């Protein structure tokens, strides 16, 4: 059982005086699940240790980046080596070329990438490029997909926006949101109808390659192909947001996993998380003719003081180099061991649930039946999830503190860590089953 959390509580109380809600990203505040967010002091392999000395098996993995586990020796060595030579130059440097080369090598349709510092910047820049390239302004996005906190993309967004049930976000002018068309995910007819009405005004469709921010909701068979066919027919670009799935679902991300080929490939991709190895590095990329429209070669401006940072790119490159076929096989078997055991215990406790997958990414929805879009995802028992979450936390397993997120495992999740998770499941399943009003 987890011990005292008094130091985390003290830190939170102080943090709230100097930072809104005491956190630097809303979901970390635990508002959806209740209780005290744990302030983590250090992490090694699959384990987190909080400021009170409690240990947890980590199933957040920093929301995806820590695919090799925390403080992996090869990544640590690369970071220390890079840091020993300086932190940031504001000039071109070798590591950024090496990281770009590795991304281009892995994701076949990507001929060039531009490095940025966050997934939000990657999607924001990809959209600007799509608008610049097409001379059109409208963007299609899908309800429940999250593409970072870009003004135009926050409508009906997943992740924290879903966690807090915000329909829209204050501070986004109508002029930005008005250019965004939000459609239900996995609905080809809705897409056809939107293009029938606005086809020659739509610059791009942006989609999570396989959504993970309303929980894991993979594309139905044929949906990705339909996105490609309809955008091509109307001269719009297809932007595949692989910030979460990139280099996690396979060595070439969801693109490699789903096996789109040749003409089915998206025009632009966005990446983040794994490619930064836990440091702020992200990217957008695609065909050289499109990417050539960016400054300094072309008219679409985009820049960043810390873009291509030498330490972040060293961490990202070492992480990608560590992502071998064996690592992907381990992620799959580990994720299945945990999800299968969780599902068995929930079934035993009589808790309705559905497990959904995108390669090794998975979510447990606390409802019966498949989840194909955001409306389905919202139709679940989030109270049951909260009870389950807190019972797992009490027993030293840190799940993502929201029912609308993927669970993540790493190469470092060994037998001991998996056994620790599995041991915690029966009590958590019973807690999920217990009605709050009984
Ligand atoms: N796109 C997707 C699919 C994401 O999952 C996220 C973050 O979770 C983002 C974009 C935004 O990335 P960042 O938080 O690095 O700005």
UniProtKB/TrEMBL annotation:
It is found in: Cytoplasm. It catalyses: (S)-4-amino-5-oxopentanoate = 5-aminolevulinate. The keyword Cytoplasm applies. The modification N6-(pyridoxal phosphate)lysine is found at residue 273. Its EC number is 5.4.3.8. It is an enzyme of class 5 (isomerase). It comes from the Bacteria. It holds the Pfam family Aminotran_3. Its cofactor is pyridoxal 5'-phosphate. Pathway: Porphyrin-containing compound metabolism; protoporphyrin-IX biosynthesis; 5-aminolevulinate from L-glutamyl-tRNA(Glu): step 2/2. Keywords: Cytoplasm, Isomerase, Porphyrin biosynthesis, Pyridoxal phosphate. One of its GO terms (molecular function) is glutamate-1-semialdehyde 2,1-aminomutase activity. PANTHER family: GLUTAMATE-1-SEMIALDEHYDE 2,1-AMINOMUTASE, GLUTAMATE-1-SEMIALDEHYDE 2,1-AMINOMUTASE 1, CHLOROPLASTIC-RELATED. Belongs to the class-III pyridoxal-phosphate-dependent aminotransferase family. HemL subfamily. Homodimer. This is Glutamate-1-semialdehyde 2,1-aminomutase. It comes from Dermacoccus abyssi.
């Amino acid at each position: 059982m987890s011990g005292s959390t008094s130091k985390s509580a003290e830190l939170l109380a102080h943090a709230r005086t100097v930072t809104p809600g005491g956190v630097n990203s809303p979901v970390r505040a635990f508002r959806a699940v209740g209780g005290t967010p744990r302030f983590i002091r250090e992490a090694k392999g699959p384990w987190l240790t909080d400021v009170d000395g409690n240990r947890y098996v980590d199933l957040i993995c920093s929301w995806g980046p820590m695919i090799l586990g925390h403080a992996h020796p090869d990544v640590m060595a690369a970071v220390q080596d890079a840091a020993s030579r300086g932190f940031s130059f504001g000039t071109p440097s070798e590591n950024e070329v090496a990281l770009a080369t590795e991304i281009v090598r892995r994701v076949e349709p990507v001929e060039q990438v531009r490095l940025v510092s966050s997934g939000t910047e990657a999607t924001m820049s990809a959209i600007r490029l799509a608008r610049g390239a097409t001379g059109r302004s409208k963007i299609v996005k899908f309800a429940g997909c999250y593409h970072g906190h870009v003004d135009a993309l926050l409508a009906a967004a997943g992740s924290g926006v879903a966690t807090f049930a915000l329909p829209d976000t204050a501070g986004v002018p109508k002029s930005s949101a008005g250019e965004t068309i939000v459609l239900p995910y996995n609905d080809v007819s809705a897409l056809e109808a939107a293009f029938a009405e606005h086809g020659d005004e739509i610059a791009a469709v942006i989609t999570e390659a396989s959504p993970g921010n309303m929980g894991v909701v993979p594309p139905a068979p044929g949906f990705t192909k339909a996105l490609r066919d309809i955008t091509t027919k109307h001269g719009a670009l297809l932007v595949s947001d692989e910030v979460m799935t990139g280099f996690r679902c396979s060595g070439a991300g969801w693109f490699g996993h789903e096996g789109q080929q040749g003409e089915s490939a998206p025009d632009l991709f966005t990446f983040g998380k794994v490619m930064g190895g836990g440091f702020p590095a992200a990217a957008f990329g695609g065909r050289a003719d499109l990417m050539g429209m960016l400054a300094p070669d072309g008219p679409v401006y985009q820049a960043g003081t810390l873009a291509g940072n030498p330490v972040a790119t060293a961490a990202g490159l070492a992480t990608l180099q560590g992502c071998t076929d064996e690592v992907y096989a381990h992620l799959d078997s580990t994720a299945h061991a945990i999800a299968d055991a969780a599902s068995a215990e929930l079934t035993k406790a009589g808790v309705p649930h559905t497990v959904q997958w995108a390669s090794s990414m998975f979510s447990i929805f606390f409802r019966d039946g498949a989840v194909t879009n955001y409306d389905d995802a919202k139709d679940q028992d989030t109270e049951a999830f909260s009870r389950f979450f807190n019972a797992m936390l009490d027993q030293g397993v840190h799940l993502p503190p929201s029912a609308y997120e993927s669970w993540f495992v790493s190469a470092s999740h060994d037998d001991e860590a998996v056994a620790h998770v599995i041991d915690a499941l029966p009590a958590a399943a019973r807690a999920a089953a217990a009605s709050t009003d009984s």
